Amino acid sequence: MPNRRFLFLLGSSRSEGNSELLARRAAEQLPAEVEQEWISLTEHPLPEFADLRHDTDHVRPTGGDAGLLLDATLAATDLVIVSPLYWYSVSAPTKRYLDHWSGWLRTPDIGFRDTMAGRTLWGVTALAHEEFEVADPLYGTLHHTAAYMRMRFGGVLLGNGSKPGDVLADTAALAQAKTFFAREAPVARFPYETGEPA
Ligand SMILES: Cc1cc2nc3c(=O)[nH]c(=O)nc-3n(C[C@H](O)[C@H](O)[C@H](O)COP(=O)(O)O)c2cc1C
Predict the structure, then answer these.
(1) For the chain, which residues make up each domain, given as ranges?
(2) Do 56 and 103 meet the contact criterion of CB atoms below 8 Å apart?
(3) 88 Ramachandran zone, left/alpha/beta (phi>0; psi -120 to 50)
(4) What is the 3-state composition of the chain as percent helix, strand, coil, each rounded to the nearest 5?
(5) pLDDT tens string 15-63
(6) Rounded distance between C-alpha atoms, residue 188 and residue 194, angstroms
(7) What is the rounded distance in angstroms from the CA atom of residue 130 to the CA atom of residue 122?
(8) Half-sphere exposure of residue 175, counting CA atoms within 13 Å on the CB side?
(9) Dist. CA 109–CA 50, nearest whole Å
(10) Which residues have C-beta atoms less than 6 Å from ligand 1?
(11) How many angstroms does the Cα of residue 29 sit away from the middle of ligand 1?
(12) Could you name the domain of life of the organism this protein comes from (predicted)?
């Protein structure tokens, strides 16, 4: 994995929760030369997203949490959305971060779309439900986001747990964590582009 830089975006509303624990297990397997940056979206809260797309250009954020997150995003070859399953989808801080992408796509001179194309999006999530199919909406959100951005998609690592630490008893999830980032991550395509289900 030469010249790879992983950005882990922590979207839980609590620290050191199950999603983060599972992501840290997966990240332990990354080669030492791979750079890692971890940013908590609750410790660095983005402002409420204002949709200016059809009024005026968005202005590049300088400084503040928006500037920090934009710069970290542009610098990453691999973006890992570490979000618990909240109401079957990503958490609100995670969703707000993705909403800001819509502004960054309209921000002159940063080349957000071209920069992101070909980079890789990954997901790590914890959920209380034992039947992981209930996380399909989260999977679809991340997969389709990658398809829209012409990014690669590495899939979602899922672990079971309710209270912090529970995921450490999910031995299947911990086993999958060991090889998760070694997976193939093909360029994502919408189902209508391939004729196959996502
Ligand atoms: C606001 C909220 C919504 C949740 N929604 C779901 C859900 O839709 N399905 C589910 O299985 N668990 C749900 N849970 C449980 C969490 O996914 C579970 O506790 C998970 O381990 C939290 O991950 P964390 O420790 O990384 O924060 C919800 C928890 C909260 C606080």
Answers:
(1) 5-194
(2) no
(3) left
(4) 40, 20, 40
(5) 999 999 999 999 999 999 999 999 999 999 999 998 888 887 778 888 8
(6) 10
(7) 21
(8) 3
(9) 20
(10) 12, 14, 17-20, 84-88, 126-129, 134, 161-162, 164
(11) 26
(12) Bacteria
* Residue whose structure tokens are 């797309």: 53
Amino acid at 168: L
Task: With beta carbons less than 8 A apart as the criterion, state whether 39 and 68 touch.
Answer: yes
Which of 85, 88, 168 gets mutated to test ligand 1 (max ligand atoms within 8 A of its CB)?
A: 85
Average of per-residue pLDDT across 158-170 = 98
Q: Whose CA is nearest to atom 16 of ligand 1?
A: 127
Which of the four CATH numbers 1.20.1560.10, 3.50.50.60, 3.30.420.10, 3.40.50.360 does domain 5-194 have?
Answer: 3.40.50.360
Tokens of 104: 């960054």
